[in-house]
Target: Cell division protein ZapA
Amino acid sequence: MSEKLKIKLSIANRVYPLTIESSQEEGLRKAAKNIEIMIKQFEQSYSVRDKQDVLAMCALQFASQVEQKSIDKENVNEHVEEKLNALNDLLHSFLVS
Model:
């Protein structure tokens, strides 16, 4: 059974207490740090002071990155499938000959 940890993460000047699996700690801390960095970038670049707006912009940015990676992975999978089919056809033509 995995060990549970109680941690506190600070995001946008709010503290969030969490009970997590120990294996999740590093990822959550990195995610919180990345959110804080992105908040600062949005506040500086767009002079946005409303935390709700900044957090919505962060959520959109992260969600679009996830979606883009999914799209890219699909494209790679299609490309690999095309190459495998071509290789399969080539092998089949040699075996039939």
Remarks:
- The mean pLDDT is 92.
- The first strand starts at residue 4 and ends at 11.
